[in-house]
Amino acid sequence: MNPSFKNLTAIAGKRSRTIIGLMSGTSLDGLDIALCRISGSGADTAVHLIKFCTKKYAAELRERLRSISSVKLADMQELCKQHTGLAAYHAELILEALSEWETEPEDVDCIASHGQTVYHLPARVQRHGIKSLNSTLQIGDGDQIAARTGILTISDFRQKHTAHGGEGAPMAALVDRILFGDEKESRILLNIGGIANYTWIPAERQGEYDSFTTDTGPGNTLIDTLSNRYFQKMFDKEGLLAASGKINRDLLDALFSDPWFNESAPKSTGPEYFHYAWMAVRAEQAGLSLNKIPPVDQLATVTELTARTIAQNIRENVPEYEECAIYVSGGGAHNGYLVSRMKEHVVNTTVHDFSELGFDPDAKEAMIFAVLANEMLAGEGFDFERGDGSIQKLNFGKISFPL
Ligand SMILES: Nc1ncnc2c1ncn2[C@@H]1O[C@H](COP(=O)(O)OP(=O)(O)OP(=O)(O)O)[C@@H](O)[C@H]1O
Ligand SMILES: CC(=O)N[C@H]1[C@@H]2OC[C@@H](O2)[C@@H](O)[C@@H]1O[C@H](C)C(=O)O
Predict the structure, then answer these.
(1) 346 and 210, same structural domain?
(2) Do residue 319 and residue 369 come from a single domain?
(3) 334 φ, ψ (degrees, to nearest 5)
């Protein structure tokens, strides 16, 4: 037998596995590394988060990634270079984190690598162009990570999703249902990253409902873009700048009237749709000029847009949403002003920090990919609703052996 297969079988047969989950999201702020101990599979999965850190990207890398992410035209040489280079760098960061945690690579069974989304293109946004399949592209090759760390690596999780008719995102719900469902409490797990998305998990007593997941639109992406453009900051810390501005109602209406917000959920999106030029065009169509609106007011307005579109999506799609508890994770959970505006719009629903469920809110997405990898190794797969509405058990990710 191929010795790599033998090793794979041994890992798959263990009672529990040590898996590193990696996420580098659309905010391009850095690599999240979650060292997890995972036992069981499927509905019996249990996760213990042993360690977590975010390795921040240097400004130069961030700019290089920005130049090839969410843009229609990119330098192919840079794209090709980063497919390998970013993976090699991720391997370096993993080894650095393991050394800080005094953990040997030999003690890690698997790495689950999301990679860097460079473009996300659900068929729904191509309505004015050529109709094609749902497409999404993540770079950072798994073979590089496996070869450089010596650890079995599972990567490129989203392609199976699109292959079965999904948009390739959001995927968190597959795992959220297993880890965070509760018998008594109906929950909404809201993640405010670059893009905001949530999973609704009804309490078991409401068994007539299925769980449900969708992106809601911009999370921090527009806030970060304006913070960078006008204030040379990576983000609006705690939302203080936005809180000091005034919401421009005309601009808010112009942005809010974008048809994407009224499209039926579930749906997914990315910064290739919601960006500064999108804002400028929508403003212009409404007879407004961004140049004439003070930057802090623009920031207050996009923060309000984010809060309102999250709340509206929840109100329109979650049955009996008032009875749900919302748990907020992702970097946007640190933006107190954004969260307070969202609370205002969801009215009676209680809003909690995701840490109340016993995990670091910043670690959630990296943990999700660790659980996807665990299932690929040891489980029967997740119930997935395919494009034709049929339910199929599926596993996600591609396996890279170190040798
Ligand atoms: N203290 C803070 N105050 C305000 N905003 C913050 C703070 N800390 C982080 N953020 C926001 O969180 C963002 C990063 O969030 P996160 O890492 O969850 O996103 P991501 O994983 O890159 O995105 P996605 O989930 O869409 O892929 C930052 O870009 C910033 O906008
Ligand atoms: C294509 C892509 O990378 N999408 C991300 C992004 O970040 C948040 C939101 O947009 C979500 O759709 C998704 O990530 C999470 C982990 C998901 O798939 O559930």
Answers:
(1) yes
(2) no
(3) -85, -10
31 assigned binding-site residue: yes
| Judgement on whether residues 190 and 336 belong to the same structural domain of the protein | yes
Most ligand 2 atoms within 8 A of CB, residue of 24, 190, 215 to mutate: 215
How many whole angstroms separate alpha carbon 326 and alpha carbon 116?
Answer: 28
Output the residue whose Cα is nearest ligand 2's atom 10. Answer: 195
Over the stretch 18-53, which tens digit does the pLDDT of each residue have?
Answer: 999 999 999 999 999 999 999 999 999 999 999 999
Contacts of 16 (CB under 8 A, 6+ apart): 37, 38, 39, 40
248 and 161 part of one domain: no
Q: Please check whether residue 28 is in contact with residue 62, taking contact to mean a CB–CB distance below 8 angstroms.
A: yes
285 and 226 fall within a common domain: yes
Q: What is the pLDDT of residues 152-165, one digit of tens each?
A: 999 999 999 999 99
| Segments forming the whole domain that contains residue 144 | 3-170+361-400
Cα separation, 78 vs 273, in Å, equals: 22
Distance of CA 330 from the midpoint of ligand 1 (Å): 6
Q: Is residue 26 a known part of a binding site?
A: yes
Q: What is the pLDDT of residues 370-399, one digit of tens each?
A: 999 999 999 999 999 887 888 899 999 999
- CA distance readout (Å), 331 to 30, 261, 290: 12, 22, 26
Q: Residue 314: is its pLDDT beyond 80?
A: yes
- Is the CB–ligand 1 distance for residue 185 below 6 Å? no
d(CA 363, ligand 1 centre) in Å: 12
- pTM of this prediction exceeds 0.90: yes
Domains: count for the chain: 2
User: Measured in angstroms, how far is the CA atom of residue 195 from the centroid of ligand 2?
Assistant: 7
- Give Cβ neighbours of residue 364 (< 8 Å, ≥ 6 apart): 172, 189, 191, 329, 330, 354
What residue ranges in 212-358 does DSSP mark as E strands?
212-218, 324-329, 350-353
For residue 29, give Cα distances in angstroms to 24, 275, 286, 332, 356: 8, 17, 33, 13, 25
Q: Are residues 194 and 245 located together in one domain of the fold?
A: yes
Q: What is the CATH number of the domain that holds 305?
A: 3.30.420.40
Residue with tokens 């101990």: 37
